[in-house]
Amino acid sequence: MKTMNSSNLAPALAVIGLLTLSAGLAACATAAPPAPRVVTEADAGPVELARGQALEVRLSSNAGTGYAWRLDREASPLVLSGGSSQDVAASPGLPGGRLTTVYSYQAAGRGRTDLAFTFKRPWEPDKPGDRKVVFKVRVR
What we know:
Layout lengths: L5 H25 L6 E4 L4 E5 L4 E9 L5 E6 L6 E10 L8 E10 L3 E10 L10 E9 L1
Parallel strand pairs: 1-3, 2-8
Antiparallel strand pairs: 3-6, 4-7, 5-6, 7-8
């Protein structure tokens, strides 16, 4: 019977190690990105995200009132990248109807940052009673 000595064992272990590493890397590469996190005014407060996860902040208003959401505190680009917004009408053919302002971000790196918004008429001065919402974002 032929036995393996230590000089024959090293190449075999190296091959096994490479195969194990390849399988592990393939599993990481095929992992689906985390589902986007959607938050509304009711979700104000802490928001947990994984790196690479999308964040959508959806804030509702009525288009005909003159009130709109204003971004007061932009997120650190090292933590959240992107920072785009768009208005989406609930009923596109209805002037002055329900409107949702959607702010979109991507979790870029580990850390903490805040997103702060105020609901007001843009031509009026800031007042202590203005409606505000703050999301305290943590990317892990």
